[in-house]
Amino acid sequence: TQLLEQSPQFLSIQEGENLTVYCNSSSVFSSLQWYRQEPGEGPVLLVTVVTGGEVKKLKRLTFQFGDARKDSSLHITAAQPGDTGLYLCAGANSGGYQKVTFGIGTKLQVIP
Amino acid sequence: KAGVTQTPRYLIKTRGQQVTLSCSPISGHRSVSWYQQTPGQGLQFLFEYFSETQRNKGNFPGRFSGRQFSNSRSEMNVSTLELGDSALYLCASSLMGINEAFFGQGTRLTVV
Question: Which of the two residues, A97 and B35, has the higher pLDDT score?
Answer without folding.
Answer: B35
